[in-house]
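Everyone, carefully examine this protein record:
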Amino acid sequence: MPPFHLAIPVSDLEKTREFYIGLLGCTAARASHGWVDFDFFGHQISAHLKPEECKAANTNKVDGDDVPVRHFGAVLKWGDWEKLAEKLKKYGGKFLIEPKVRFTGQPGEQGTFFIKDPSGNALEFKTFRNPEKLFTTDFIEE
């Protein structure tokens, strides 16, 4: 699968670097005085210094949770997802939605959690019990 590119607004480049590099384990790539690129789990995230563009996303009810409508993230291997969740707990990461498993026993069984970066961008990290079911339509909404 080809990597995607996503540009996001941020309010502070140094705090953004600390979050994406220090907490999530991303690596920094090209940078300038007004932006920095990250290797975000094999994809390119460009963080642009635009504080006036940073605003909270509206939410939508999904499986009983208030999910930020505007969000992005990564689909990780199950063990890597668990390790990241534990790292975030250990270092005081605040979850918007705590780590949980949805659709247990169904083809689309998945783990998910949501966090925010220092600029308020919402991120979702997911994992699938059966990675080949990433795009399955065979599930029952709980």
The longest strand covers residues 95-102. The beta strands are 5-10, 27-32, 35-40, 43-49, 59-62, 65-68, 71-76, 95-102, 110-116, 122-128.
